[in-house]
Specification:
Radius of gyration: 30 Å
Helix content: 25-40%
Distance between the termini: 96 Å
Structural class: alpha+beta
Strand order of the largest sheet: 1-3-4-5-7-8
Order of helices and strands: HHHHEEEEEEEEHEEE
Oligomer: single chain
Number of strands: 11
Number of helices: 5
Largest sheet: 6 strands, antiparallel
């Protein structure tokens, strides 16, 4: 009798504790909602931090790749300064893509370049400036030679005013975002006896190209950004063109379509 009573008391105590420790469905839903809300707020921050760290690592790696490649070239060609590199004189002021392709494949692990299947159209059309709604003045359509290495980094070679240096633009992740100058797009200058300098500030400037200032449209992409502009209900077109094989300029003219239809 006593034993049965003791069991009943224990069962009652356990049942009471279970009721005290259990959560209702509404309490569980509220808790999950709070957790989900915190995750929504913090996840983008975490993702951005991870992305910044990855891009920073890629930035350092790209500098190392460039320095080691050009160091190898110096040894191969016994060149004491940049001006003595063979391609500085042989590749038509760094505009002959086939000549540059031949030289750069000797020192970098090139998987695609301008002489084969890599075109400016495959790369971001424009890059933003951090913290603004402005676009960088840089455009791939003005780069005569582009190459991509086996780690996914894309480089562009640009000539400078003299033979003592040249510039390299590097996109760390191709068409992937954020496409921001100074984040995943950088510019370097290789000069003198083999000094690599970060000159990204040169592309962290915005374009002055506008309908009122066509002379400041320096690239095809800048000019095309003005295409299909509506002024006083009339559609205007912008076209990157040249006269009699001369320098290119941005032509802006009224279209027969009103309003703009995209034709």
């Amino acid at each position: 009798m006593k034993h049965d009573l003791k069991n009943k008391i224990n069962k009652a105590a356990v049942a009471g504790l279970s009721k005290m420790n259990a959560f209702t469905l509404s309490e569980l839903l509220i808790t999950l909602g709070v957790i989900g809300g915190v995750a929504v707020l913090t996840l983008p921050v975490v993702i951005n931090k991870v992305q910044e760290k990855v891009l920073a690592t890629q930035y350092e790696k790209s500098k190392s790749v460039l320095l080691n490649g050009f160091k190898m070239l110096k040894v191969q060609q016994k060149a004491s300064t940049v001006s003595r590199f063979g391609f500085m004189n042989r590749c038509n002021s760094l505009t002959d893509k086939n000549c540059l392709s031949e030289e750069y494949k000797k020192i970098f692990k090139v998987v695609a370049d301008s002489s084969s299947n890599l075109k400016a159209e495959q790369l971001p059309k424009e890059y933003s400036l951090e913290g603004t709604d402005q676009k960088s003045i840089f455009s791939w359509d003005k780069v005569p030679y582009i190459f991509r290495t086996n780690d996914g980094t894309t480089y562009g070679i640009l000539s400078d005013e003299d033979l003592n240096s040249f510039s390299i633009v590097a996109d760390m992740n191709g068409a992937k975002k954020p496409n921001i100058a100074g984040k995943d797009l950088y510019k370097f200058r290789y000069s003198g006896t083999g000094i690599l300098t970060d000159v990204t500030s040169e592309i962290e400037q915005y374009s002055l190209c506008s309908v009122e200032n066509l002379g400041e449209c320096k690239t095809e992409s800048e000019c095309e950004s003005l295409n299909n502009t509506t002024i006083n209900g009339q559609c205007y077109r912008a076209e990157w063109t040249s006269s009699y094989g001369g320098d290119y300029y941005c032509s802006f003219y009224r279209s027969s379509y009103s309003p703009c239809t995209g034709n």
